[in-house]
């Protein structure tokens, strides 16, 4: 009987250790009200230019979308990126998409593949390499897509998903990001500050 108890106890300890290890590796989202991390860090854009978040930010704020080339969730939402970009521009808010998938950089998430995606989808905004997922780590981003909106004072005012239905735009009931962009553009307090990010896990280098 003691042998059974020891076995059960050992299993419980192993489960607890595994759970705690998972928590330790889990990234925490940047809290609402935080400043833009690494705002002056230069990143390579699909245009060949070196850009920082401060280079992209406009008069009323900055929108950062952690994105990639391969995730089905990104593919489902990607056609909405252009609508988001158009609204952001009209509200004088800069937009940049960042690719943090460093573990796949030599394959499907290479700069060359990013250029192809940007061209085929007719991106009207910068799409840059988040080398070694430095910004994704600083932002606590875990998914692609994962969006972060900052106001004119560089404070985070919204984080999460674009809307509540990646699969079918016609069935969207809550346009979280579009609403937040309009509120930030008009100087209002963002009413919904957080929505759960849905997407593929960021492919980090271990």
SSE layout:
Layout (H helix, E strand, L loop, with lengths): L1 H24 L17 E2 L5 E2 L1 H4 L4 E6 L5 H19 L2 E7 L11 H10 L6 E3 L4 H6 L3 E2 L1 E5 L5 E5 L15 H10 L14 E2 L5
Parallel strand pairs: 3-4, 4-5
Antiparallel strand pairs: 1-2, 3-7, 6-9, 7-8
Helix pairs in contact: 3-6
Return the average pLDDT rounded to an integer: 89
Number of helices: 6
What overall form do the CA principal axes indicate?
globular
Output the radius of gyration. Answer: 19 Å
Task: Specify the biggest β-sheet.
Answer: 5 strands, mixed
Q: Report the count of strand segments.
A: 9
Widest sheet, order of strands: 5-4-3-7-8
The helix content, as a percent range, equals: 25-40%
User: What is the ordering of alpha helices and beta strands?
Assistant: HEEHEHEHEHEEEHE
Strand content: 15-25%
SSE class: alpha/beta
> Which consecutive residue ranges, at least 5 long each, have pLDDT under 50?
7-26
Name some characteristics of this structure.
206 residues; single chain; 6 helices; 5-stranded mixed sheet; globular; two-stranded antiparallel sheet; alpha/beta
């Amino acid at each position: 009987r003691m042998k059974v108890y020891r076995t059960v106890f050992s299993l419980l300890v192993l489960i607890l250790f595994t759970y705690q290890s998972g928590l330790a590796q889990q990234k925490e989202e940047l809290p609402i009200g935080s400043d833009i991390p690494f705002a002056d860090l230069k990143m390579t854009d699909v245009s060949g230019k070196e850009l920082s978040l401060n280079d992209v930010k406009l008069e009323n704020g900055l929108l950062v979308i952690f994105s990639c080339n391969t995730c089905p969730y990104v593919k489902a939402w990607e056609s909405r990126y252009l609508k988001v970009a158009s609204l952001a521009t009209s509200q004088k808010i800069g937009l940049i998409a960042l690719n943090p998938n460093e573990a796949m950089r030599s394959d499907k998430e290479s700069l060359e593949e990013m250029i192809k995606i940007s061209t085929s989808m007719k991106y009207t905004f910068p799409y840059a390499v988040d080398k070694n997922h430095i910004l994704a780590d600083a932002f606590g981003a875990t998914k692609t897509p994962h969006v972060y909106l900052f106001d004119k004072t560089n404070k985070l005012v919204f984080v999460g998903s674009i809307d509540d239905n990646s699969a079918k735009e016609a069935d969207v009931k809550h346009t979280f990001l579009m609403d937040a962009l309009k509120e930030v553009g008009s100087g209002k307090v963002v009413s919904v500050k957080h929505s759960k990010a849905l997407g593929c896990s960021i492919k980090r280098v271990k």
